[in-house]
Write a structure and sequence with these properties.
The complex is a heterodimer of chains A (193) and B (231). Chain A is mostly helical and 193 residues long. Chain A has one domain. Chain A has eight helices and no strands. The relative contact order of chain A is 0.22. With 231 residues, chain B is mainly alpha-helical. Chain B has one domain. In chain B, 68% of the residues lie in helices and 2% in strands. Chain B is built from twelve helices and two strands. Chain B has a two-stranded antiparallel sheet with strand order 1-2. The longest helix of chain B has 31 residues. Chain B is globular. The chains are: A mainly alpha (193), B mainly alpha (231). The interface between A and B is large, with 48 and 49 residues.
Chain lengths: 193, 231
């Protein structure tokens, strides 16, 4: 069992090893949904919620597979669990907040193929985190993802007003900004040991 | 789902015999998954810090892509349309598990270097995208050529990134020193920001040389909104 303190796990997954800017996970929504600030924020929160639920399910699944002695099934069962979690969250959001459901639109079901979520569960199992540690890790990863998405959206909203050369317009410019953000986040390394 | 435009285009031409070489070259150049469609970016950036890692990751992805395209194409009459996405994902997950174990058996060192990113091939948008856009309604032979082309395009793109990052970052290629011992490596190129910068550089180079005219003709919509729909 990993004995890492909780605050260090949280800072680690949110800032030092930010999912988008250090692990390159969840780049598709990062490039796709970061056009507007409000959408970016909501998307980030939805991913955080799914990550936390998936962390609990993932922990249970790890235990179950250890009992059954079938580790080779982990990937297949994880992806099935994530797909069903996303489905459940989608139904819950539709029931309790139709407005949010409409705002998120297609991004909600497509979260199944968001590598940030599968990645977060895989990292938890690779590092042998316990139940509470997994939860903290998922919360940190989700908030870090939200932070990166919101930062990017803010920058891109301002950038829309700027005159940019044709050659860099589009994905290339977004990637350069992401690179600079990523360099800024490297400044966090060493924080919390 | 991801390539609406490309999907309808291939659907329209399906049935008529498409030369295998065209099918192959389409993936390598005209619709290069990384440089033109901007698909499957996560592994592209994450494990392209050296040429060796890039080649290994590209080959693993290509193997899964070829097998999944073949499997989906062979089973296309059997899979009920309502649960097709789940079925595709389960097929892909099974194949990835096999590839993961093969790599581990072949080279533990490589397995450690690629880490969780082998498992993450499951959620590579490129593979699911090809299954949905082409393999679901094509003959196995056509699906095979398409997968080979797309896989080669992906592999080439990964190699382009990995080679540049390794060359600038440590002055070597495949671990062999190229620029001599006095070369001071740019460490940042081996680190995450380098991945973003090098990919941006390649994209700029391609748009400077002239965005492939066929990409415009194929009606590929604005990349940002395209990615947005796929997420």
């Amino acid at each position: 069992m990993n004995q890492e303190p909780l605050w260090s796990i949280f800072i680690g997954s949110a800032l030092i090893n930010n999912f988008v800017l250090a692990y390159f996970l969840g780049l598709c929504p990062f490039l796709g949904v970061s056009g507007r600030l409000t959408t970016a924020f909501r998307m980030g929160l939805a991913v955080t919620v799914v990550m936390i639920i998936a962390a609990v399910c993932g922990y249970g699944l790890r235990w179950l597979l250890a009992v059954l002695n079938a580790p080779y099934l982990s990937l297949i069962s994880l992806i099935a669990v994530i797909a069903s979690t996303v489905q459940v969250v989608e139904m819950a959001v539709r029931k309790f907040s139709p407005a949010l459901f409409r705002a998120l639109g297609i991004f909600l079901p497509l979260m199944t193929t968001n590598c940030a979520i599968l990645g977060s569960v895989l990292f938890q199992s690779n590092r042998g985190l316990g139940m509470v540690q997994s939860l903290v890790f998922a919360a940190g990863a989700g908030l870090g993802f939200t932070l990166a998405l919101v930062l990017m959206a803010g920058l891109r909203e301002r950038l829309g007003l700027a005159r940019t050369p044709d050659v860099v317009r589009g994905t290339a410019l977004t990637l350069v900004i992401a690179g600079i953000l990523s360099m800024a986040f490297m400044g966090f390394s060493g924080l919390g040991g | 789902m991801s390539m609406g435009a490309a999907g309808t285009q291939t659907a329209a031409t399906d049935g008529s015999a498409v030369p295998a070489t065209d099918e192959f070259l389409k993936g390598v150049w005209k619709q290069n998954p990384v440089f033109v469609q901007v698909l499957g970016m996560c592994p592209v950036l994450a494990v392209s810090n050296t040429a060796t890692n890039a080649l290994a990751m590209g080959s693993a992805t290509m193997a899964v892509l070829v097998l999944s395209n073949l499997a989906v194409s062979c089973l296309r009459q059997v899979i009920p349309p309502q649960v097709r996405i789940v079925t595709y994902i389960l097929i892909i997950a099974t194949l990835v598990t096999i590839v993961d174990h093969l790599i581990q058996a072949w080279s533990v060192e490589l397995h450690r270097a690629l880490g969780a990113f082998i498992s993450l091939i499951v959620v590579n948008c490129l593979i699911l995208g090809r299954a949905e856009a082409l393999a679901a309604h094509s003959s196995p032979l056509r699906a095979l050529w398409d997968a080979l082309g797309m896989g080669t395009g992906f592999l080439l793109a990964l190699f382009c990134l990995g080679a540049v990052r390794e060359l600038i970052g440590s002055g070597s290629l495949f671990g062999v020193s190229v620029l001599g011992p006095q070369y001071q490596g740019w460490v940042v190129m081996m680190l995450p920001p380098g991945g973003f910068f090098v990919l941006a550089g390649w994209l700029m180079l391609f748009s400077w040389v002239g965005r492939p005219a066929h990409a415009v003709a194929a009606g590929l919509p604005d990349r940002a909104s395209e990615l947005g729909r796929k997420a």
